[in-house]
């Protein structure tokens, strides 16, 4: 009880000093709990949606996925004849059955040809209005579509794009473009996670999506009273002789939920990873806080020891303070996490994914995880300072000698740090020298972890040298004030090392990812310049195939010398060694593709692979199956017949673009795959006539004006798009890493604030002999800047080393260009100086306000 009282008194006596450490715990716990609440809420939302929208039993066409429609390479959904509906209705136990037809491989545009598809990644669905949809949607304006000139839209999409009754909408599919006017607006009775949904009448939907009437993609079956879903599924499957996929409502809902949870799982663990980084950075802050508090209470600890307190009691007193800090920060963090989750839901709403707070899900495990993590991390971080406090001898403490300085421990620490850093460096060397990416990745992971720990351990040793170099470059310019700032930063190398290490972790990750991202862009750009011979690339950014109508429109453009169509066909290969290789892809293209993509071969000429009944394979596949030029491979096309194709070329495994591709001509594919089963083009290449590049570019864009889902890019556009994609990904990661940087900044603030308190008497004496308030504040700001730059130098140097090693590993996959993003590195380094300035504002202000006489009188 005495220990608890002492801890409570000390905790509240230093509540201002504890605040920043509590904020660090709060932020980290909030990020963890916010992630858990947000992902749980999304899962709840989707589970409710899938459970509500699924009929008792669903019958799907051959080739459809477990979640419903699967659009084939033809751009059309797989269908079943309408006669199946009659068969299902005749099965015992069926109360009612309705045929539906829908597709997600559609583009919907308004009268101005602007896309109405969600920007959140949610699907665009066009289907027929049916009884199953009427269970989850309520028509709030107008009426359901009746006739080919009418279409109904969901209320969220109508609000977002300002659609009203009578507005014209175009539905672009593989069949063609169907235009209709808005006849009604329907509102979800459950939460709509962001999909854009459009309804046509049944016959119009069949013609617009499939190109023929009398077919359905699904049949929704309702069970008669007293008939279970499982029994109904069994009876329906028996009635159809197992010719179609039959699923219960639970099976459909589970399949849909599994797809969502796979995506949510990736996002969840990625965000928790960043929260873990923030926790790691927070550990340094807490260690520094308690180390300095213990140092400032040396005499008090000595008195406690002198009157009978044992080492264990002193240790417990400090750990009890940490426990209080952890509990306080964690409780607030759990509450803040719920608020963060609601904020993320609002943000997703702005992006088009609507999540209702009615579905807010806070599982009992979430606050428990937050509290346990926050408390355990805080107590573990405080253990070393607590142990150090217990070692203070009563007599040394009463003389205010401070915590025992253990020179031997310092040398041991330095030796361990050097060993760890050396081992990590050797791991990075082995990763860079690896022959296989799988082997090298293990060494890379080990090298990153060991060098990071090594730099943290060796931080105090590095602080002395690095701070002196920085001081010689920066602080000496400020005369005596700069030299005093340097001495203050060097006064306690362990503290400076820990403070700089907190900032180092976040910046090391930033530098590493920047190097990898820039190298990926540089490598791809280099490959484009070396291998791509086409002037223009036409494709959908959403991965949708290019419809035949769009291809014909593109071919009408003026100034184009040649077009190359490019398709992907699924096939099973039987190689000369008698082995069967399933799930392979044949890249079928026009013969001009050999000019559009200059792929290096190790045997033969790639142009020969486009001869009739010919193909190419890649080097690794050829070695694995003993294939040589002239070998014959049996190719069983999934939607066609079996062909005997002769290998005319073997491509190099060093290729980056289309690495591992096997080529054949479209003409060869057409011999074995029926026209109605032939996949649409996934890419279209075009080359301009000599001197007409600009005119051809403009003409192509104009020709595809009616097809906004496709983008025409020249090589410059393509490089910029690639850079933008990687840049957006990096910016998102940097945003998440900002949490760790914020916690590190709090660490600098806390270190300076406690350092000012520690040096109160010294500051009073300096003021007494003539140091002005302005000079005092400048001294503290300069000390903060040099600590921040120390952390930035370590972090950026370490991160660039990691990034360069990762690039050497990626070079095995063809990313051969190492590019250091010096503008980004320089910006981060300079920004670190500003971080130091900002962190010093409050401590410098408080130091400047000190009363000189009171400061001198402070013991």
TrEMBL record:
The keyword NAD does not apply. Keywords: Cell membrane, Membrane, Transmembrane, Transmembrane helix. It is found in: Cell membrane. Residues 63-75 have a biased composition (Low complexity). Residues 19-237, 499-696 form the MacB-like periplasmic core domain. Residues 274-394, 736-851 form the ABC3 transporter permease C-terminal domain. GO terms for molecular function: transmembrane transporter activity. InterPro entries: ABC3_permease_C (IPR003838), MacB_PCD (IPR025857), Macrolide_Exporter_MacB (IPR050250). PANTHER family: ABC TRANSPORTER PERMEASE YTRF, MEMBRANE COMPONENT OF TRANSPORTER-RELATED. This is ABC transporter permease YtrF. It comes from Streptomyces jeddahensis. The gene is ytrF_1.
């Amino acid at each position: 009880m005495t220990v608890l009282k002492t801890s409570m008194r000390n905790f509240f006596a230093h509540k201002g000093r504890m605040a920043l450490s509590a904020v660090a715990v709060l932020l980290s716990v909030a990020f963890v709990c916010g992630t858990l609440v947000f992902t749980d809420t999304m899962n709840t939302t989707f589970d409710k949606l899938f459970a509500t929208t699924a009929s008792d039993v669903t019958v799907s066409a051959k080739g459809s996925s477990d979640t419903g429609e699967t659009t084939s390479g033809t751009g059309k959904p797989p269908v079943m004849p309408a006669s199946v509906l009659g068969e299902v209705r005749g099965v015992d136990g069926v109360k009612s059955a309705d045929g539906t037809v829908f597709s997600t491989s559609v583009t919907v545009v308004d009268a101005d040809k602007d896309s109405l598809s969600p920007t959140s990644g949610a699907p665009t669905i066009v289907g027929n209005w049916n009884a199953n949809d009427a269970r989850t949607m309520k028509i709030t304006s107008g009426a359901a579509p009746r006739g080919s000139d009418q279409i109904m839209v969901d209320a969220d999409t109508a609000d977002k794009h300002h659609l009203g009754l009578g507005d014209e909408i175009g539905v672009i599919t593989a069949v063609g473009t169907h235009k209709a006017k808005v006849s009604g607006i329907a509102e979800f009775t459950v939460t709509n996670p962001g999909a854009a949904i459009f309804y046509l009448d049944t016959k119009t939907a069949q013609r617009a999506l499939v190109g023929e009437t009398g077919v359905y993609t699904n049949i929704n079956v309702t069970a008669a009273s007293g008939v279970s879903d499982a029994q109904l599924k069994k009876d329906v499957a028996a009635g159809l002789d197992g010719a179609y996929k039959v699923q219960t409502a639970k099976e459909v809902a589970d399949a849909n939920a599994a797809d969502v949870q796979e995506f949510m799982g990736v996002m969840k663990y990625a965000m928790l990873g960043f929260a873990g980084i923030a926790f790691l950075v927070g550990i340094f802050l807490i260690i520094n806080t308690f180390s300095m508090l213990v140092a400032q209470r040396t005499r008090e600890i000595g008195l406690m020891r002198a009157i009978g307190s044992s080492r264990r009691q002193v240790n417990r007193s400090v750990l009890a303070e940490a426990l209080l800090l952890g509990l306080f920060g964690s409780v607030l963090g759990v509450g803040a996490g719920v608020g963060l989750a609601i904020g993320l839901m609002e943000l997703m709403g702005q992006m088009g994914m609507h999540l209702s707070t009615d579905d807010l899900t806070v599982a009992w495990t979430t606050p428990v995880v937050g509290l346990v993590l926050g408390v355990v991390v805080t107590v573990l971080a405080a253990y070393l300072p607590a142990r150090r406090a217990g070692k203070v001898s009563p007599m040394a403490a009463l003389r205010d000698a401070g915590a025992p300085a253990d020179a031997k421990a310092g040398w041991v620490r330095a030796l361990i740090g050097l060993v760890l850093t050396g081992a990590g460096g050797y791991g990075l060397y082995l990763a860079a020298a690896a022959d296989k990416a799988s082997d090298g990745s293990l060494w890379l992971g080990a090298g990153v972890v060991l060098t990071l720990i090594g730099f943290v351990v060796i931080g105090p040793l590095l602080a002395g040298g690095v701070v002196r170099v920085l001081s010689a470059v920066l602080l000496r310019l400020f005369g005596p004030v700069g030299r005093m700032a340097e001495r203050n930063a060097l006064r306690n190398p362990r503290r400076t090392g820990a403070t700089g290490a907190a900032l180092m972790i976040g910046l090391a990750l930033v530098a590493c990812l920047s190097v990898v991202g820039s190298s990926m862009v540089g490598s791809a750009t280099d490959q484009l310049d070396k291998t791509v011979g086409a002037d223009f690339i036409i494709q959908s950014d959403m991965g949708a195939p290019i419809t035949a109508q769009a291809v014909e429109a593109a071919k009408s453009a003026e100034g184009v010398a040649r077009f190359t169509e490019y398709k992907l066909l699924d096939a099973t290969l039987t190689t000369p060694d008698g082995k069967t290789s399933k799930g392979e892809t044949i890249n079928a293209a026009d013969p001009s593709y050999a000019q559009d993509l200059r792929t290096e071969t190790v045997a033969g000429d790639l142009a020969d692979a486009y001869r009739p009944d010919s193909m190419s394979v890649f080097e690794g596949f050829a070695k694995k199956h003993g294939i040589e030029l002239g070998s014959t491979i049996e190719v069983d096309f999934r939607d066609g017949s079996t062909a005997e194709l002769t290998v005319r070329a073997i491509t190099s495994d060093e290729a980056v673009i289309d690495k591992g591709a096997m080529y054949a001509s479209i003409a060869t594919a057409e011999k074995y795959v029926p026209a109605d089963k032939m996949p649409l083009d996934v890419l279209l290449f075009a080359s301009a006539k000599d001197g007409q590049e600009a005119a051809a570019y403009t003409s192509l864009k104009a020709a595809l004006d009616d097809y906004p889902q496709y983008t025409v890019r020249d090589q410059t556009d393509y490089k910029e798009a690639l850079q933008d994609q990687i840049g957006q990904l990096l910016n998102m990661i940097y945003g998440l890493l900002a949490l760790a940087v914020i916690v590190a900044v709090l660490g600098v603030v806390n270190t300076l604030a406690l350092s000012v308190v520690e040096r109160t008497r010294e500051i009073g004496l300096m003021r007494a002999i003539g140091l002005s308030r302005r000079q005092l504040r400048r001294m503290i700001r300069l000390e903060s800047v040099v600590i921040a730059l120390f952390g930035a130098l370590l972090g950026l140097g370490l991160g660039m080393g990691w990034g360069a090693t990762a690039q050497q590993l990626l070079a095995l996959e063809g990313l051969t260009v190492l590019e250091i993003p010096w503008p980004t590195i320089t910006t981060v380094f300079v920004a670190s100086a500003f971080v130091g300035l900002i962190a010093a504002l409050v401590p410098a202000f408080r130091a400047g306000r000190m009363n000189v006489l009171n400061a001198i009188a402070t013991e």
